[in-house]
């Protein structure tokens, strides 16, 4: 069994152009920047993904205009726009 | 949108896949719902694409050929009447009519609050592992792992393989309990092989029993971790911390459907049927037991759903798995010190930002919810509920719809209304 | 243990407000609650503080109570979420708009400030509403609170004055001068007030109180969708019908940015589970008024059992056949609104004080004892 061909997708996170291997989740792609941050808490402090499994709701962000998407459950796609509030 | 099936399987981890394969191969129309984009659950996450794990590959291939239909990104949000599930898929909604149901919703990590656990870069143990499997770049990153049991080693192996510098593995269990458990693995050859493989890949990573995270520190993200290691405190600068203490089953859907739950597991009969007729439970819902239990119980239910006799070998295997699971539960039980790490300012509920001190004077979960908003936010108490059980001994309340936050449109009943018979 | 001046059985918002009022007047008080303060029907309500004008007695009690809340507002902790958002009574057609005129005169006669909004003013105030509404009546003095913490605040104020909060203490029987507790203890009290909501008949058989089930749903935090509490004028018909289940549109902005949605009423239904068919009717009705509703994120749905009386008014005063027993129960969906006024009325009677409003319409004797059929309607 040969390893699947490595392909990449390009998306934008808060306007920053990010290229990641195909199959990367949006939550994982958030970690390509300075810090793994997805949202702000009620006091405005940054938060990042915790559970990675769609349970904790910490990784929520706006994906292609849809708010509150659990980014750990969504694969990166070409041309995707991701916006975090932190 | 609507779907109808003989058997609906909620959760596409090993248990759900095994049940779905047997039922579909026997000719039933089977629909499998899972919130992820591909089948495999948490344990085989990404395997549908990477095809690295042989066991996963075998089941995923069998599933693909079984005739069972898979709906990715599908989250069950309500169960308005017997035989009907309301499901949310991204921005659309789905009503699923079913004859029989298999709940294979798996488990999540148990998080216990400590100062700094809300900092970005602090994740669960499996949480960090999952993100790395999903593409989080960790090459050259310094990582500390703290938790308990075999999952800790599995996560360390994944991180190591992806180029992370795993600085330290803190196992909370006392040495005697830990090594006693490790010796028990001799009785479980499958487990032993996994354990040996893991150990081989972890050569050179400092590991200690009687060790846990005291605090994570940093400004806008974790920068260093303070650990208690066999009674001494150590500080390690790091980029990521994975910290969690074992697993707890995802019981919400079972509770919503009215299944009886006792001692943290769904009550089932020998056909793995819950107290609700036609609803079965498999895998972690029966008590944390890992892949082996998931496959054995999934196959067992698959036979039942298909109306075939259950091979006695399966029943024997399940009993053996339960023995291992009970040992695991004893090993992973969080130690007393972990209940006292949070300071008054440490947030317990991460959705509503409820600090420990806000719970002063609360006597039970209902008071904590109503007076302090504990568990009243987006995750519906999934994270803080398990913590509150360890910290205070508070157990959960009834589950009401929606069992996950959902668009109101996803809670609307399919028309014509389901009560057409009653008039 | 020495006898207290007054034992209040039931630590919902009415019992807690009464404990506050009596302890303020210097009485020694014990508040006996089976579970926790403000966590029963109190916690299941919307928390509206709304002047209602179905009849003169209801308007007198609700408008006075709302003004008492307003006077308290400054001193309430922020977590009680007192929000003077006001109410908009929505008119869907000319007939309902005509009903606004009679409401205007009712409210003004009772000293309640109101203003009539035409369609343009309504949509300027609440742009999220569905088109086609003809206008609204605005009651700016109405407000909302977070009921469990409001109740707890009352109870803690009483406790600070020496009142005993006996939570986790179910009462088993009431006798002259004694509350018999489920644990076998006996609490001696000079006066006993029964304020146990739907549980009241179990401690005083024969009370004309039946459960009326209601469903509610709250959304996740987000940008506010509406600014006022919104109620359809059809609510009045629906809320006080006695036959069968009914629903009406009622939406409320919370200070958290959540939207709280009601309402349903099921007379005589005492089960607690969320019923899909009722929830569906309630959501369908709400979506008629808020077209964007289906896209909002639901967080939780729940039910509450309101203690309903045959005439929709609470029982406030002495039991005519058991003069040692006082009643403060049967508030149905207005327990939060009228907790302040109800507490004052009962306290005034217990203390022999005069009240700001006529207490007679709420006396239990309209149903109990010597004049069982003579309903005192003002």
Verbal overview:
The complex is a heterotrimer of chains A (86), B (423) and C (378). Chain A has 86 residues and is mainly β. Chain A has a single domain, classed as 2Fe-2S iron-sulphur cluster binding domain, sarcosine oxidase, alpha subunit, N-terminal domain (Ubiquitin-like (UB roll)), CATH 3.10.20. In chain A, 6% of the residues lie in helices and 33% in strands. The longest helix of chain A is centred in the first third of the chain and has 5 residues, at 26-30. Chain A is globular. The relative contact order of chain A is 0.27. In chain B, the strands form six sheets. In chain B, strands 1, 2, 3, 4, 5, 6 and 19 form a seven-stranded mixed sheet that branches. The radius of gyration of chain B is 22 Å and the shape is globular. In chain B, helix 9 (290-305) runs antiparallel to helix 10 (312-332). In chain B, a hairpin with a 2-residue loop joins strand 17 and strand 18 (265-266). Chain C has helices at 13-24, 56-73, 94-109, 119-125, 147-160, 200-203, 234-240, 276-289, 335-351, and strands at residues 4-9, 29-32, 48-49, 87-91, 115-118, 135-139, 143-144, 164-166, 171-175, 178-181, 186-194, 210-219, 229-232, 246-253, 259-267, 297-308, 315-319, 322-329. In chain C, strands 1, 2, 8, 9, 10, 11, 17 and 18 form an eight-stranded mixed sheet that branches. Chain C has 378 residues and is α/β, with parallel strands linked by helices. Chain C is globular, with a radius of gyration of 20 Å. Chain C is built from nine helices and 18 strands. Helices cover 29% and strands 28% of the residues of chain C. In chain C, helix 1 packs parallel to helix 5 (147-160) and helix 1 packs parallel to helix 9 (335-351). Chains A and B meet through helix 1, strand 4 and strand 6 of A and strand 8 and helix 4 of B. Strand 22 of chain B pairs antiparallel with strand 16 of chain C, so a sheet runs across the interface.
């Amino acid at each position: 069994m040969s390893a699947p061909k490595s392909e990449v997708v390009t998306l934008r996170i808060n306007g920053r152009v990010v290229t990641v291997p195909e199959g990367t989740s949006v939550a994982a792609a958030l970690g390509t920047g300075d810090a793994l941050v997805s949202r702000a808490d009620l006091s405005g402090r940054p938060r990042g993904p915790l559970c990675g499994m769609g349970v904790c709701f910490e990784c929520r962000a706006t994906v292609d205009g849809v708010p509150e998407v659990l980014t750990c459950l969504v694969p990166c796609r070409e041309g995707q726009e991701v916006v975090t509030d932190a | 949108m609507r779907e109808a099936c003989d058997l609906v399987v909620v959760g596409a981890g090993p248990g759900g896949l095994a049940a779905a394969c047997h039922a579909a191969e026997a000719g039933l129309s089977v629909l499998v719902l899972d919130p992820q984009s591909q089948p495999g659950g948490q344990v085989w996450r990404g395997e549908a694409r990477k095809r690295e794990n042989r066991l996963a590959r075998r089941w995923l291939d069998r599933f693909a050929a079984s005739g069972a239909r898979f709906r990715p990104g599908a989250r069950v949000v309500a169960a308005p009447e017997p035989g009907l599930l309301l499901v949310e898929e991204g921005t659309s909604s789905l009503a699923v009519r079913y004859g029989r149901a298999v709940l294979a919703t798996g488990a999540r990590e148990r998080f216990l609050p400590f100062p700094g656990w809300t900092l970005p870069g602090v994740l669960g143990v499996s949480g960090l592992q999952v993100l790395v499997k999903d593409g989080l770049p960790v090459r050259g990153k310094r990582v500390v792992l703290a938790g308990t049991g075999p999952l800790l080693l599995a996560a360390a192996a994944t991180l190591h393989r992806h180029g992370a510098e795993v600085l330290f593995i803190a196992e909370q269990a006392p040495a005697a309990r830990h090594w006693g458990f490790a010796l028990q693995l001799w009785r479980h050859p499958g487990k032993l092989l996994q354990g040996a493989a893991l150990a081989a890949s972890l050569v050179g990573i400092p590991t200690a029993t009687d060790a846990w995270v005291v605090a994570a520190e940093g400004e806008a993200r974790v920068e260093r971790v303070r650990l208690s290691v066999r009674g001494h405190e150590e500080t390690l600068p790091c980029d990521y911390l994975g910290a969690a203490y074992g697993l707890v089953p995802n019981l919400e859907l079972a509770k919503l459907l009215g299944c009886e739950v006792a001692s943290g597991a769904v009550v089932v009969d020998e056909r793995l049927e819950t107290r609700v007729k036609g609803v079965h439970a498999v895998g972690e819902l029966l008590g944390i037991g890992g892949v082996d239990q998931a496959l054995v119980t999934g196959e067992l239910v698959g036979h039942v759903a298909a109306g075939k006799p259950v091979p006695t070998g399966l029943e024997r295997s399940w009993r053996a798995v339960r023995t291992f699971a009970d040992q695991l539960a004893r090993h992973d039980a969080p130690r007393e010190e972990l209940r006292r790490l949070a300071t008054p300012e440490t947030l317990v509920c991460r959705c509503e930002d409820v600090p420990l001190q806000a719970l002063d004077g609360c006597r039970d979960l209902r008071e904590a919810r109503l007076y302090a908003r504990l568990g009243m936010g987006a995750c519906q108490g999934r994270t803080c509920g398990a913590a509150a059980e360890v910290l205070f001994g508070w157990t959960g309340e009834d589950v009401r719809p929606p069992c996950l936050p959902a668009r109101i449109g996803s809670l609307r009943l399919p028309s014509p209304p389901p009560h057409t018979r009653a008039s | 243990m020495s006898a207290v001046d007054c034992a209040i059985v039931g630590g919902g918002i009415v019992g807690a407000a009464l404990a506050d009022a009596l302890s303020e007047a210097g009485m020694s008080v014990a508040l006996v609650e089976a579970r926790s303060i403000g966590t029963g029907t109190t916690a299941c309500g919307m928390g509206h503080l709304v002047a209602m004008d179905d009849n003169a007695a209801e308007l007198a009690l609700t408008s006075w109570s709302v003004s008492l809340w307003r006077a308290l507002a400054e001193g309430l902790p922020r977590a009680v979420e007192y929000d003077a958002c006001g109410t908009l009574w929505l008119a869907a057609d000319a007939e309902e708009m005509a009903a606004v005129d009679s409401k205007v005169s009712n409210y003004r006669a009772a000293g309640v400030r109101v203003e009539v909004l035409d369609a343009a003013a309504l949509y300027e105030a609440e742009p999220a509403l569905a088109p086609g509404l003809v206008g609204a009546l605005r009651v700016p003095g109405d407000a909302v609170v977070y009921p469990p913490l409001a109740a707890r605040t009352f109870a803690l104020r009483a406790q600070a004055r020496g009142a005993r909060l006996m939570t986790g203490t179910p009462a088993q029987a009431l006798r002259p001068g004694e509350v018999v507790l489920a644990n076998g203890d006996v609490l001696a009290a000079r006066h006993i007030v029964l304020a146990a909501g739907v549980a009241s008949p179990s401690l005083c058989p024969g009370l004309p109180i039946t459960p009326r089930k209601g469903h509610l749903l709250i959304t996740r935090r987000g940008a506010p969708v509406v600014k006022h509490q919104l109620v359809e004028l059809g609510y009045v018909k629906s809320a006080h019908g006695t036959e069968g289940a009914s629903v009406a549109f009622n939406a409320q902005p919370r200070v958290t940015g959540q939207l709280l949605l009601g309402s349903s009423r099921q007379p005589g239904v005492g089960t607690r589970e969320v019923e899909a068919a009722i929830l569906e009717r309630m959501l369908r009705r709400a979506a008629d008024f808020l077209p964007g509703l289906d896209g909002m994120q639901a967080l939780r749905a729940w039910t509450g059992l309101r203690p309903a009386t045959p005439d929709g008014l609470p029982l406030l005063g002495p039991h005519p056949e058991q003069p040692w027993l006082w009643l403060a129960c049967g508030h149905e969906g207005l327990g939060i609104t009228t907790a302040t006024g109800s507490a004052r009325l009962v306290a005034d009677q217990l203390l022999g004080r005069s009240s700001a409003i006529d207490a007679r319409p709420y006396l239990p004797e309209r149903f109990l004892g010597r004049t069982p059929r003579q309903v005192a309607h003002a």
